[in-house]
Amino acid sequence: MILSRRRFLHQSVLASASLLAAPAVLRQGAFAADDPVLVGSLHDQSGALAASGVPMVYALNLAIDEINAAGGLLGRPLKVIHYDTQSNIQMYSQYAQQLALKDKVAVVHGGITSASREAVRPTFDRFKVLYFYNVLYEGGVCDRNTFCTGTTPAQTVEKLVPFAMGKSGKKAYIIAADYNYGQITAKWMTKYVKDNGGDVLSIDFFPLDVTNFGPTISKIQAAKPDLVLSALVGGNHTAFYRQWTSAGMKGQIPIASTTFGLVNEPSTLDAAESENILGAYGYFEELDTPASKSFVEKIKKAHPDTPYISELAAATYEGVYLWAEGVKKAGSLDRMAVIEALESGLSYEGPSGKVTLDKATHHTTRNAFLAEVKSTKWSVLESYPDVLPADTASVCDLVKNPRDVKQYVINL
């Protein structure tokens, strides 16, 4: 009787404890469901690259606000943790670790230069934080934890170079930024010039802080090319176009660029300095489609100071929505479940048109557009639907090699 009573009392205590704990567990579950899903943002909102980074932040915020207005994800709201990386690679490294270890975000969208991407990508690989790089770049990144939504040379440079040569001639002079984007893009330019029966007379590289292009302009004048191909980057390099016009070269030798216009150069330069420059991107603000017009209107209504909405902003907006579609399909925030959902051929109809994730490369099949500056605006001349990231596909196959985590320099 004593043992039975003790057993009964013991079991009653356990049962009572369980009953008392149950409401707390239920409340905890309800509270967790209401906790926001944290989204990391690493963008240059100050410093030399702020003109690129700020519109990307606007686009990211717009996508997040729209998703929240539609009910969030998995019944939870989204909350952005923004860090201003100040156009400083050290800040990228510092804030990447903070997002991964302290903030414990579900995903990070960010990076502008390839150097910034490569500064943070190993951190997110190591700590298993999903990463989206929403910027046009030189191609070759092969990493199952990383998704690259911007265009690569096979999608834009491959269109731009032969078009420009067809208008101007077969002798090209290349000028480019002196880091991996400029160096590798110059190789692609060289390939496409030669593939189309042309010759590259010279290639000049410039650090990002260079503002004096007088000696180079003299070299170009002496070389007498039919065409200048530019992969110059950032506000300092905008000086080239002013000095080119001041030297009396405008109208004598045409320019085609893989970067001109990303920070509103057609409007910030005098009309005479930007007129007739050719460019090719995955998006132009001037696209005459309902989706593009709505996207531009929403950003400029919220931020009237936005100078220009380029591929950088459009790809960021589309990148957020692609990630959200992956979460919905996975029914979970689990990183591998989301990756597998993203690898299922997910598409999103965004301001640039249909964007589809490629399983083998984690890049996008997307539209490309070729345009020419006319009276400080881009005039879209050609559209190329559903262009594959063929350059990266030639070196990257994450289906066969899912543990790959490197950036390949593609042999040309």
Number of helices: 15
Q: What count of domains describes the coordinates?
A: 2
What is the straight-line distance between the termini? Answer: 89 Å
Query: What is the name of the CATH superfamily of the largest domain?
Result: Response regulator
Instruction: Name the beta content range.
Output: 15-25%
Overview of this protein structure:
There is one protein chain. With 412 residues, this protein is of the alpha/beta class. It folds into two domains: 34-152 and 288-367 and 387-407, 3-Layer(aba) Sandwich (Rossmann fold), CATH 3.40.50.2300; 157-281, Response regulator (Rossmann fold, 3-Layer(aba) Sandwich), CATH 3.40.50.2300. 45% of the residues lie in helices and 22% in strands. It is built from 15 helices and 16 strands. It has helices at residues 2-34, 50-69, 89-103, 114-126, 157-168, 180-195, 214-223, 234-237, 239-246, 265-268, 271-274, 290-302, 311-330, 335-342, 390-393, and strands at residues 37-43, 78-84, 107-110, 130-133, 141-143, 146-148, 171-177, 199-206, 227-231, 255-257, 278-281, 347-350, 353-357, 364-374, 377-387, 405-407. Strands 7, 8, 9, 10, 11, 12, 13, 14 and 15 form a nine-stranded mixed beta sheet that branches. It has a five-stranded parallel beta sheet with strand order 2-1-3-4-6, with helices on both faces. α13 packs across α14 (335-342). The protein is globular, with a radius of gyration of 25 Å. Mean pLDDT is 91; it is low at 1-31.
